[in-house]
Specification:
Helix 1 (16-30) packs antiparallel against helix 2 and helix 4 (159-166) packs across helix 7. The two termini are 27 Å apart. The protein is built from seven helices and eleven strands. It is 31% helix and 23% strand.
């Protein structure tokens, strides 16, 4: 996919951010599987490498914590083993230590291409786009369905602009993952038709709660995860939810 991307195929990559979100969500879900009666999270973790001097650490994306990482001499010769690269590590259940399993550079390549596209590609505004450059939905049947939906947006940074794009279409409630009380957020989640979580700006307790509720499971339609979203990403997701409403 990365090698296929150029200016002539750019339109085929409109859902690249969504694909990256799903890839990372899949890693998170994998870590919750049961292996031998024990959660797999106790055996494998996914995260990002942090190098401080001669010491390596893994930033565990599931628990938002850093742990010392054992890296063999042969692994240290890997040119792809650089600060910030995505990695998979094995946890020794007896000692609690973490050892590098392999490097996952494809995750970083996807992130890099997303950032490069945002920074360098300036598309001309097309019919159907708003003056702010966002997506504008116009189909009457779609608008009628969306008008009946209640959407809770949980985030912090960039959440207001993200929510503003949604206001013309659905009933919006915006809550701050750090400022609002967790119990109030959880109650609002249950009352909403859809919950849009800006995963990079909420405490881990928010996503932990969704994993305990069948109606809010990561695989359900009700909870939609966004990582570093563009302000129009929510509108694009609304259009997708409408298109797949009967699936």
């Amino acid at each position: 996919m990365i090698n296929h991307l150029d200016l002539t195929t750019l339109s085929q990559y409109d859902r690249l951010a969504e694909l990256n979100e799903k890839m990372l969500a899949t890693f998170s879900e994998t870590s919750q599987l049961i292996l031998g009666g024990q959660p797999a999270a106790l055996k494998f973790v996914y995260g990002y490498l942090k190098i401080v001097g001669d010491q390596c650490f893994i930033h565990d994306v599931n628990h938002q914590r850093e742990f010392p990482l054992l890296v063999s001499d042969s692994q240290q010769q890997n040119p792809k083993l650089v600060d910030g690269v995505a990695i998979k590590a094995r946890r020794d259940l007896a000692t609690g230590t973490y050892a590098l399993v392999r490097v996952l550079p494809v995750i970083n390549q996807v992130d890099h291409h997303q950032q490069k596209l945002r920074a360098t590609v300036k598309r001309k505004r097309q019919p159907g786009q708003s003056e702010q450059g966002g997506i504008k939905l116009t189909q009457p049947a779609q608008l009628a369905w969306l008008a009946q939906q209640k959407v809770l947006v949980v985030g912090n940074k960039r959440a207001q602009a993200f929510a503003d794009e949604l206001k013309p279409y659905v009933e919006i409630k915006l809550m701050d993952g750090y400022e609002d009380q967790p119990r109030a957020i959880f109650t609002a989640m249950q009352a909403a038709d859809f919950v849009f979580i800006l995963i990079d700006s909420v405490p881990h307790a928010i996503t932990d709660y969704t994993k305990t509720q069948p109606s809010l499971a990561p695989t359900s339609r009700k909870v939609q995860i966004f990582r570093n979203p563009r302000r129009e990403a929510g509108v694009i997701r609304l259009s997708y939810l409408y298109a797949t409403r009967n699936d």
